[in-house]
What does this fold into?
Amino acid sequence: MATQRLFFALWPDPELQQRLARVAAALLPAELGRRVRAENLHCTLVFLGGVDADQRLCVEAAAGEVRARAFNLQLDRFGYFRRPQVAWLGSTVTPTELIRLVADLGGGCNACGFPPERSPYEVHLTIARKVRRDPGRPPFMAIDWPVDRFALVESLNDENGVHYRPLRFWTL
It folds into this structure.
């Protein structure tokens, strides 16, 4: 049975994606890592992995039951995860509405056969991969992101690498 590699995410509009890419370029010299293309920038909420057609219908129905409210996400932290070698933007304070959104989505996905993450949710937006050393913590102007939707996204591989394609959006 064919599967799709799927995840739920906060998906910025193209203008915000371009702004985030400019911040990433200012924070991280090109020689330190491979920046994520602007059109791929997002915050993962729930990673599903391989999903068949019936499971997709189930998780879409679960997403339709989410009743979280819109919120403002302030990206005011720049960080580095050593083991996966990624640089990221995050939030000093994770909005309560975001925690609820992740919990509600996770609960619905669990009922569809996708167990929730064991560790608590920590918002981060990956801006670069294969970052071989800690780039430090240069200051930057915080970015306010008014979040009023989330997406089901497909991860695809092609000759240009990984490409993410939003399949469907839900309004908060």
